[in-house]
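Q: What would this complex look like in 3D?
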Amino acid sequence: MTRAAFLRLLRFEVESFLREPATRVITGLLFAAMLWGAMNGERHVRAQQVAIARIHLREAQAIEWQKATAHRFMQPSALIVPYWQDPTDVAGYMRYGLTAFAVKPPSPLGALAIGGSNVVPFYLRARLDFVAPPEAAYEFENPRVLSLGAFDLAFVLTYLLPLGVIALTAWRLSAERDSGALRLIAAQPANARAIVAAKFGAVALATVPLALVAMWLAVALAGVPIFSVRLLSIEAIVAVAAAGYAFFWIGLAACVASRTGAITSTATLVAMWIVLVFVVPAIGALALGSLHPAPSRLQYLDVLRRESDWTDKRRDDLITAYLAARPAYAAGAHRIASIPYATKQIAVQTELERRLRDRIAEFDRARAAASRTAAVLRLLSPALVLDAALQSAAGSDAARHEVFLLRAREFTDRLRAFFWPRALKEAAQPTTTACNGCPAKMSFLEHDDIPSFVDDDPVIGVAARIGPLALHLWLFAGVTALVAGRTRGFRL
Amino acid sequence: MIRRLYLMEFERMVSDARVRRMGSVFLLLFATVFVTEWHSASRVAADRAAVTAAERQRWLNQDEKDPHEAAHYGVWAIKPSSPLSVLDPGVEPFSGLAVWLEAHQWDEMIFRPRQDANPLMRGAISVAQLVSVLGPLAACVLAFAAFAEDRERGTLRLALGNGGSPGALLIARGLAMMTVLAAMVIVPAALGGGVAGRTMPDAGWNTPARLSGWIAAHVVYLATFLMLGLAVSLRAATARAALIALVSIWVVFCLVVPRVATNLAEEWSPLPSYQDVRARAATEAPVYESLHQRVARRQSILAKWRAATDDDVPVNMRGAQLDQAERHSHEVFDRLIGSFHDQVETQDCLFGRLGLLSPAVALQSAATAIAGTDFHQHRHFVNAAESYRRRLVNRINGEVMRHDVAPGERYVEGATFWANTPEFVYQPPPLGSVLAAVAAPLLLLVGWCAAATLAAGAALRGLRA
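A: Here is my prediction, written as structure tokens for the whole assembly.
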């Protein structure tokens, strides 16, 4: 068959495909689903943005209130203010007054995939004392919603797009074979490969651009600011990944439908969909759970209680040793009885963390090992690869959360580096109140200098992370295209 | 006649290699999923028992101390899961395992298993998902060709021409398919539930009755899809058309509508921001009161006792302040957090009523309730633990109030006091109250089954050979 004849055939097939009512109905339904999915995703993003704005407001209001209270307590008064109610007492402030949060803002493309962002916390209150467990804070989502999964764009692309492709392709050639029309087609001067290429190439040429336009149109209509230069590279790679995924399913349909009857083709493709979308992820999850079981949180709780009991009983000994070991604060070791509980907790906390270090490392190790294995297992199913790409693009992936947890810990360390030396210095050389008759301790007046958390940029590095995933999807698509192109197994 | 037809149909289906292959895949999946879940749940149950016992010992072995310090030391309550969570984990992977019961605060349940897990674990499927998602597909696969294929081949005309009753044929085929479906899907789940019930602590969950109810709900659910499949097969011109129609119904009912219903429930019965609720609770009932609040509280206690100074008050002023602040916090928590939980339950009720859109939604709502893994029963534990916390802290504050101490002295309690503090023992809600709470989705599930049966009957009356 000449190239020109093939192109004529292809054009004819594209036109016929686009004229089919099923094409319009299925494309329309998919667009509606994409729009709804994108709107749900964007609503989730906005809810997080509102929550984060509220957190920042709460931080600012706390500081303002504390400064006003400090000002009041710095006037002569008969009031007796306990240290934990005095915003100018460094020890009291760092334990009872500090209102600081680490937050993970949603990405501008967060509407693409809700991913794990509704399960893991997107803000953490910084506490200088050990928080057990550190991830205790989270915004409540109805757990039933979490267990059923969200209707977001990732769901539509990963689950429903392949079903749409199957509905549009499972009968191509297979129905013609059942009716005997394939023999007539084969009597024309076209070889089997050209027929398969024209039939399924037409679907690909029509469906993939339609799907991509529908996807970005849905995202734009949902209110996502897609026309931003810094997002272009990510958007392009997401489009490439989604196209690769669609091509994979069209290729798979070509492999099956060109070799079987309509019923077998439909049943086989649905079975393959179940295997790739349900069974492989489920087996992957089972394998992951068996290979890297998470250490028991309940056992950890038991150890934490035991160790806390041990350190609490030795609070005075611990702070004495802590101060004595640091020449700058050694003077405090001789006046332990007058050191406030909050300052003593510095030593208790340090010892507690030392004693729990191995236990905490177990969780970190198990999580890291599970992440490595998951990255490999994910490659077994194109559905998982696309889902991972969408989550990374949306900033709702596990890798970003790991970085967030790490940065939250670093933030706590920065706060400790700010407060602890001040509190220890106060323990060693107590401030002499500058104002006679004022209830304020005035050992801490630098409320405006307290370190604040710097949000990450959810867009940086995303393109590099999702590029390989997009390529992997095209590898899947290439394999199916190669198999479909082989005429062995093609029958009239 | 129906019995003979049933046996023939059953034999034919059992000898079908495709059915045997499908059954083997189902059994393999069931076995793998069940063993993994059972192993993990058994480990959690063992940890729970050990940590609960250790917590009690820690409480009993406290040194002599101010009882308010003991209230701050608190105790951890760990939720005993229903043994059926092995089959149907419901909200458990997304709700906490343990809660700290301490003075002043209504703490969150923490340790949500999915929060700790790799995101790939969200792809994990449970026995309940196998039954509720793949079970209907198996029903559709068994039923699509039941009549449509015979019609295409002309064998239906032959069967009916020989005096065969279409009604008898429908009943016999339906029963044979239900038997095969039950053997593939229901029996393994029932066996798994039985093993879980026998090997895991029941802890008052009444597992046998719950398992029976759970199985019954799933039988009705699968029968619905089977009758739908037969109705479509009776109506469809070709087996191909029947297959496409049934796969479409499956996709819509089992995959799309449950998530759509979730969205609708969120849209029509939205939840306020929990962060906001918690922040308001912290403002209205702070753990550490400001000086202003403390002064105001002291004044109100003095006014209550018509006293001029602390010494004129017939109870310990510190104890009275603690008690008043604690009771005030209870009112605040009930009004804010309790009302938030009410709204979650309202949303869940609405979701259950959206079972009108799909039997899968009705089943999801009813089955998790019967298994003891829905939010209603999670909240039951949360409330029971919170009630215990309040009793514990009120008792301690009462003791502090009763013991007036001279300046410079400390009031302390020891081993006897700790031993006289009752242990927290959780009793899950009775099955009757749970069933009453999910009456709507249960009725909808039965309604779906009746409607599908009526549809099959109507299709039978219009049967063309």
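A: To summarize the key features: Chain A touches chain B through 87 residues (CB under 8 Å). Chain A has a mean pLDDT of 90.
Q: Very helpful, thank you.
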